[in-house]
Fold:
Amino acid sequence: MTTTFRNITKLLFLASAVALPTAKTNTSSIEWGPCNQTEVNTTGTAPAQCGTLPVPLDYTDTSSDEKFDLQLVNIPATVQPCKGSILFNLGGPGATTRQDLATLGYAFLNLTGGQYNIVGFDPRGTGHTLPFSCAANELEAQTMLQRFTQGGNASDTALGTTWAGADLAAAMCKRNGNNTGSRIGTAFTARDLISVVDALGEDGMLRYWGLSYGTTLGATVASMFPDRIDKIILDAVQNPHEYYHALADFEEWSQTDYVFSSIFTHCVGVGPEICPLASLNETATELENMYWTFLYDLKYNPIPIKDADLIVDYTTVKSFVVNLLYSIDGWPAFTNILFAIFTAESEKDVATALSSMLLAGGASPTLVEQTIGLSSWAGIHCGDRFPRTENFSDMLDVYSELTDISHTFGDVLIAREMTCARWEFEAKERYSGNFAAKLPNSPMLLIGNTGDAFTPIKSAYNVSSGFEGSRVLEIEGFGHTSTSVPSSCTLEHVSRYWKDGTLPEKGRRCEVEAKPFGNVTWADIFAGKKNATS
Structure:
C-alpha cells in the first residue's frame, strides 16, 4: 500500500470519526502508556496507547537470545465486555502501521462493533522497528529514487538502463542494509503477530484484519499457525503465490486498465454539469484516447513548470494517474484537469493545468521519506521472493507480460521487479507452502472490490479456494480495500463477522452508497446505522 493510498484512506475515515466512550482494556504483559508524539501524533484521534514488546531478532537461530523492540499502538475497546484484541496490518510491504491506525481508530472501532481493542505494530523493516535503508546519504537516496522510478517505456533505451541500474540498486541495498536485510521477511513478521498475541494475555488466539499486503501476511500466518487463529479478514487480497514465487506480481495489475477506463465511463455517465470533460461531446473511449495522445506527446515534449521548477513528463503523469486509482475521491479533479488541458489555447495554459495536477496530488513526500518507503518495500518483498535471475531476457519477458496486462501502469513497474530479480538478500525464513488450511474456530472472510485497480477480486477467490469454509464478500465499488468504498452492506457483514463469526452467504455482493463523482462518506454510513438502531 503506497503512502498516497494511506493518506486517501485516512481522509475518508477522518470524515467518519464517530466518537465512542472508552472502555477498560484487558491486562497484558505489554506496558501501555502515552505515545511519543513525534512518532505517533494522537491529537484528535481516538484515545491511543503505545508500548513495546521485545521479540527475537532471528526466530531461526535458537542459540541466540538477541531481541529487538516491536513498536505497538492500542486503541482500547469502547464497549464492555471487551472481547479481546484485533491486530491490524494496513498494507505495504514497507508501510508503518501505528500512526495510521491511531488516525483511523474511531472508524475501525465502528466497523468492529467497539468490543475489541484495535492493536497494530510497525512491522520489522519499517519505521523505528528494525529499520532497513538502502541509502546512507542524500546523494545515494536521490540515486536510488531515480533507479526505482525509471519507466521502462520512458525512452528507447530505458529498459537496458533500468536493468543496469537495478543491479546497482540491489548492491547499494546490500551494502547499507547488511545488518537487517535477511531478518525483515514476512514469515518473521507472522511470528511477531503470534508473539504479540501471547504477550496480550487474552485467550491465546489471533484475531486479525489485513489490508492489501496485509492479506499476504494474513495468509502466511493462517497457513503457518492455523490452530492459533480465531477470526481473520483479508481485505483487498494479493495473490500470495505470485508474491513469493513469481518474478513479478502479474495478477495484481489485471484490473488496472478497467478501473482507469471507468473514470471516463462514469464522467460521461454523470454528464457535463458534474463532469465538465463530458462536454467535449466525445464517447468515453474517445476521451481516454485523447489522454493517451497527450501522454505520448509528453514523452518527447515534456513541459517545464517554471513556478515549481519541475519538468512534467511521461513518467510524472503516469505516476500521478496511478495514485488516482486508490479511491474515487480524485476522479473529479483529474477530469477537470484533463478538460483544462484539452481546451487549452497555449502551452502556458497546459502548464497551468499540469501545475494544478501536481497540487491535486497533495504534499509530496520528502526525498528521505520516499527512499525509506522504497527501501522497506524492497527489503521485505524482494527478500521474500524465491526466484531471481541474472538474465536480462527473462526480465524482457516479464516486461512484455506486465505491459500486456496493464497499459496504464505495466511499464512503470519494471524497475522494482528488476531490482528484486538482482536482490542479494534472502529472508531467513520464507513460507513455501500452498496456502491451504482449515481454521478450527471461524472460517476466513475475504473481501474484494469489483473495481480495485491493485488487488483484483479474482485474487480473493484464488486465496479462498485454499482455506476450507472461507467466503468472499465482493464490494461493487471502485477503490483499493473495502475501507475506500463506504457501504452500509460492508459495515453490516464486517460487524457481524466480528460479533459472532457469521459469514455472508456464498456469492454475496454488496452494493455501495459511494458512487463515482458523488460525495457519500463513512460518516454518512455510520450515522445511518446509529439512526437505524436508536
Remarks:
- Residues 272-360 form one domain.
